[in-house]
Design a protein that fits this description.
The chain has 411 residues and is α+β, with helices and mostly antiparallel strands. The chain has 9 helices and 17 strands.
Length: 411
């Protein structure tokens, strides 16, 4: 199916697949149908949570607890649909996908616990979805929807008008209908990914993540500065948050229309900031992939920055969004990305491989090697270290030295 080209959102969802998100226009009849369908799906999810918790707490430590896999949950759904007429009036496709999503989330939580991961890195067990705080989200497989004359027809007689902004590229295998924090509805289609190889350039690039600059590379032309979108929107967000504070309802009272509108305006500003970050990250990733064949990237996990004094600036930098955009773009264009462990990257010298005796403080922005005397900006040196550790041929690297040695500790 072919749609007009435009600026639709495309994100990777796995090997060989991509997700295309489009805004949908929802009539009053369609809205009523979607909310009823979501109420049924939410009930199925909560029943899965209750069944799982019962299975987990039943029996003693010496007894084997009953399994709570997809087979048991499917049986529970079948019995519930046979017993409840209002549940049977909804789409079985969406309700079955709820069971699949729940089983996947529970299996991930059990795997993390079995692998002995720390508590802060584990996926939590699925929880109940409350009526007032959970946002509608429903998944439909191929037999639960169809596209006809540019409109999306869902199982249950729900018809939505999609705002097509680009081509889908292939027949979608599934679609997710969801509502964001502002109240707008979206349709996210999963389609088979199409490889779009770029011409070979014979060049390599090293990337180091940071807070002052989101990405510092071995090429000055491909550095990603910190745009500070969050800081620019802070004044507007503060104004609406003060409106919310003045109109905050008392405990037990319903929120006023003014409070709900101020809350919606805050969500709109945050959404605009997030889209600006994503747009900048994707444009930067596209330019990197267009000009380089192999990219050595610091495998950086920015979560620890949330507990530091740089938490606000780090959150505004959105390093995770830039990293995700880079990996998605590499997958799309068939480029080679090598993830490098970040340990000691600020202490090693890219020229001679010597290692400093102590870590550099964040205020020290110039790296000086005590072994060979080489001096360079701290982040630039780290970006060159990525290339050396990746074993790339530095002749094709922007600003990197030829040759390469094993790392040794400075004396």
């Amino acid at each position: 199916m072919t749609m007009p080209r435009g600026a639709g959102e495309r994100t990777g969802v796995g090997h060989g697949h991509a997700r295309y998100s489009f805004r949908v226009r929802v009539s009053s009849t369609a809205l009523e149908g979607l909310l009823k369908e979501w109420a049924r799906c939410r009930w199925v999810w909560n029943e899965c949570v209750a069944t799982s918790r019962t299975a987990h707490t039943s029996g003693t430590s010496s007894e084997r607890r009953p399994a709570c896999g997809p087979a048991l949950l499917d049986k529970m759904l079948t019995e519930a649909r046979a017993r409840l007429e209002w549940l049977r009036a909804g789409s079985s496709v969406a309700q079955q996908q709820v069971v699949r999503d729940f089983a996947k989330a529970r299996a991930k939580a059990l795997k993390d616990r079995g692998d002995g991961l720390p508590a802060h890195r584990r996926a939590g067990f699925p929880r109940f979805k409350k009526k007032d705080t959970s946002r509608p989200s429903m998944n439909y497989t191929r037999r639960g929807f169809r596209l006809k004359n540019g409109r999306l027809h869902l199982a249950g007689g729900i018809t939505l008008t999609v705002v097509w902004s680009r081509e889908l590229g292939a027949e979608p295998s599934s679609v997710r209908i969801h509502q964001d924090s502002v109240g707008d509805w979206y349709a996210s289609f999963v389609v088979p990914g199409r490889a779009e190889p770029l011409p070979k350039t014979g060049r390599t690039l090293g990337v180091d993540w940071g807070v002052r600059d989101i990405a510092t590379t071995t090429s000055d032309a491909h550095d990603l500065p910190h745009p500070e979108h969050g800081r620019a929107a802070r004044k507007e967000i503060g104004r609406y948050q003060r409106m919310m504070a003045r109109r905050k309802p008392a405990e037990g009272q319903a929120a006023s229309r003014g409070y709900r509108e101020a809350k919606r305006q805050v969500a709109k500003v945050y959404r605009k900031v997030a889209r600006r970050r994503q747009d900048g990250a994707r444009k930067w990733a596209k330019s990197v992939m267009r000009d380089h064949d192999v990219i050595a990237v610091e495998d950086f996990r920015p979560r620890f920055l949330a507990r530091s004094s740089l938490a606000r600036k780090a959150a505004d930098a959105a390093i995770g969004a830039a990293r995700t955009a880079l990996l998605d773009m590499a997958r799309k264009h068939g480029r080679d990305v090598r993830l490098i462990p970040p340990v000691h990257t600020t202490m090693d010298c890219a020229e001679c491989g010597a290692r400093a005796k102590r870590p550099l403080a964040l205020s020290e922005r110039i790296y000086t090697c005590t072994a060979c005397g080489a001096t360079s900006p701290r982040d630039k040196n780290s970006a060159r270290v990525m290339l050396v550790r990746a074993g790339l041929v530095p002749v094709g690297a922007d600003g990197a030295r030829p040759g390469g040695t094993r790392f040794r500790r400075a004396t």
